[in-house]
Amino acid sequence: MVRPVALLLAATVLCTAAASVAGAEKQSVLVLLDDPALEQSHSTFLKSLSARGYAVTIKPITHKALQLKSWDDWLYDKLVILGSSNELGGAVDVAQVVEFVDAGHDVLLAVDSGVSEELRELSQELGVDVDVRGHAVIDHLGFESQLGGEDHAALLADSVVQSAAVLPGGLQGPVLFRGIALSVPADSETAFLALSGSPTAYSGKPGVAQTDAKLAGGSMGLVALAQLRNNARIAVAGSLDMFSDAAFQAHATSHSGQGLGQVANEAFCAAISKWAFSERGVLRATGLSHRVVSGAEPGAVNPELYRINDEVEFSVHIQECNEGSCRPFKGDDVQVELQMLDPYVRSWLRHDGSGRFSALVKVPDAYGVFKWVVDYRRLGYSYIELTETVPIRPFKHHEYERFILQAYPYYASVASMMAGFMAVGAFFLYTR
Amino acid sequence: MTRALAAYLAVALLIAGAVASDITLADVSVSLMEASGSIVASTSVTGPSTANLGTLDHTRTLKVSLTTSLSAAPGEDFRPQQVFLRLTCRSSQDAAYFAAVKAKDGTLYATAKSADIQKQVGLQSGAYTAAIIVGDTRAAQPLLWTLGEVQVLHAPLDDGSQPAAAPYRAIDRTHKPLLEIVHMHRLPERRAPAVVSVLFTLVAAAPVAIYVAVALQMGANLKGFPSGGGFLAAAGFHLGLLSILGLYLLFWLRLTMVQTLPMLAVLSAVTAAFGSTTLKQATGRGSKLE
Amino acid sequence: MNQQFESVKEIVAEFSKSYHKTPQRLKLLDAFSICALATAVLQFVYAKLVGTFPFNAFLAGFFCCVGTFVLTLALRMKASEAGGGVAEFGGYALAMCTLFLASVNYIG
């Protein structure tokens, strides 16, 4: 009588526990759609997000009760905006999305030629400039003839960023693109182009003679990515059609009618969204430690102070996390600096294959408050910024070399003065 | 009348998309002009070519002018949607683009200066491949004619050389490893050879030896050392002084100041006691003698 | 010119004649002073020759000798007065011991 009840109770407890654990693992993504029809036309892409383990919430972009945060808590971990001419509704606006990004969350923004001024402003705040509304990317020598035969505005792009973190293995085919151009300012240190135009492509108003060539060729972007200083990631794509089911299944035909095989949109969009949601190319540095090899206190681990001319071994563990699994990082160009205002020493960190990066450094003979700095920024990887403050002291008065051969004449002179003093004293007092 | 009808029909068919049309270029010329407007070199181009077009330095302008017509509508004023002059840097494949504008006489021309190239691709000087791209949605075949090669020179530095080409994008500069810095430690001071030091040790000890010899020769002796009662005080005094100097030697070899000072205090007290006694006695003796 | 030379010779002769008359004890002290000075000069020559490498040692040795020179001269001044300077020897010993302590500490 008691046993079935007990079993039922145990089962309920176990189920809740399992559910809560599973729920705690899942990150939530808010997807804002310009047009509710996008939920069907882009179903493959949206379903792939759920398949990767996200709790996806889909809402129209103009939804009146839209909110990203409730008091001080953020309700979602990632944001996807498939936007066009409609404005952000509810409590969400450009300022709030920027605040969302400042709090360390990732955003994927896709727009097309009818982009609203609000979304252009949002993209600019995040570091990527979107071209003027109404402009499209046109390539008279590289358009896709099935979809762009009329206006030459659907093109096959294949110049992608060379980065193993963003696109491992590169592109397996062209990417079908129809939309608006992006650009990244030349002085930007965070944003870069993931997909850029071919040497004959340009951005302009379709059907009109172009009077300036402001955005053209390789410096015109189609998809831009940014790794912001707080390690949040942004992806901005100039085409909504790029993510659609029709694009994923399309077969490319060049402008001259030649068949080019299956387009690589599905793989490319998956790679872009994985990078944008910090699933790829994330570097984690842990276990920073420094040890005196020879000098004032040989063998001391993480000492409070160094003495000048000490030999110190600096080490840190760095892992690279890709799609859930973290492996030892194998980079060859990680550096560590020992700096006090300016770097006095900059040395390569060599890894031993299992993620432990170390360097043997001789402490400079300047004294003051120094700090170890590891500042690793490479395209496609998250930033590593570590510092550790260690003061450096000069020799104490009793730590200098003594009994130096070159000083023997001086030792002899003092000794002789002492002997002479004893002699002169005795002679002076007792000579008769 | 028939001609007008034919033209109208052609345009109508063109709009309907039934007739494929080609763009033809005529009077294509590439010229290099000085700032004053005088022409340095001018080449007429009739098709894709790889001619050497000259040097575009920071005072000159490269001008490409052409007229375009559409085969389906001859005689009509045809302005293609895209007429671009493209200058591609040979070494890095970065390209600068210049759109053509319409001149008063109906020709289209595009001009390029090295300063404009710098705005688009940065300070890269050297060989550039010039090409024109002419495209339009009404035309079946776009045109991409390579015009030739241009040497581009930017404004030189004070010593006449070209400024170095730095990566144009900031991200290419910051996302790179930096130069290794090895700290130059202070070099240890130059030391004398051992022989010289040993020699001078003997030389430095010599004067006192000479002094003792001279003193003995002068007749110094210890005959006046007190015996009997004053012996203890005198011996104590001199032994005390010797022990202080011995303590100094020990201090030099092994001890710290904190350790020696108490011992020194004791020894100097003892020595001072003996010393005052013996000196008083000696003074008495001396005055007696004198 | 001859006159000058003559006068220097005269000065030297006069000086050595008077000096013979000084008591032996004072001559002892004078000899020791010259010894100390000579040692100081030799150290200076050495430093000029090979550099001042352990500079603290050079200073300690040099000023020990110079200090001994000065103190011995001070004792000589007292010794040339009435009383023979025996009582002042205590002060001389104390001063020398202090000088030696400072020199040994600084010489490293």
UniProtKB/TrEMBL annotation, chain A:
Domain OST48 middle residue range list: 301-431
Quaternary data: Component of the oligosaccharyltransferase (OST) complex.
Domain of life: Eukaryota
UniProtKB keywords: Endoplasmic reticulum, Membrane, Signal, Transmembrane, Transmembrane helix
Transmembrane segments annotated in the record for this chain: 408-430
GO cellular component: oligosaccharyltransferase complex
Species, as recorded: Chlorella vulgaris (Green alga)
Protein name as catalogued: Dolichyl-diphosphooligosaccharide--protein glycosyltransferase 48 kDa subunit
TrEMBL record, chain C:
Cited Pfam families: DAD (PF02109)
Record-level GO BP terms: protein N-linked glycosylation
Record-annotated membrane-spanning stretches: 28-47, 53-74, 86-107
Membrane topology classification: Multi-pass membrane protein
Transmembrane helix among keywords: yes
GO cellular component, one term: oligosaccharyltransferase complex
Associated pathway: Protein modification; protein glycosylation
InterPro entries, per database record: DAD/Ost2
Places the protein is found: Endoplasmic reticulum membrane
Primary localization: endoplasmic reticulum
Keywords: Apoptosis, Endoplasmic reticulum, Membrane, Transmembrane, Transmembrane helix
Family recorded in the similarity comment: Belongs to the DAD/OST2 family.
UniProt xrefs under PANTHER family: DOLICHYL-DIPHOSPHOOLIGOSACCHARIDE--PROTEIN GLYCOSYLTRANSFERASE SUBUNIT DAD1
Assembly description: Component of the oligosaccharyltransferase (OST) complex.
Function field: Subunit of the oligosaccharyl transferase (OST) complex that catalyzes the initial transfer of a defined glycan (Glc(3)Man(9)GlcNAc(2) in eukaryotes) from the lipid carrier dolichol-pyrophosphate to an asparagine residue within an Asn-X-Ser/Thr consensus motif in nascent polypeptide chains, the first step in protein N-glycosylation. N-glycosylation occurs cotranslationally and the complex associates with the Sec61 complex at the channel-forming translocon complex that mediates protein translocation across the endoplasmic reticulum (ER). All subunits are required for a maximal enzyme activity.
Name assigned to this protein: Dolichyl-diphosphooligosaccharide--protein glycosyltransferase subunit DAD1
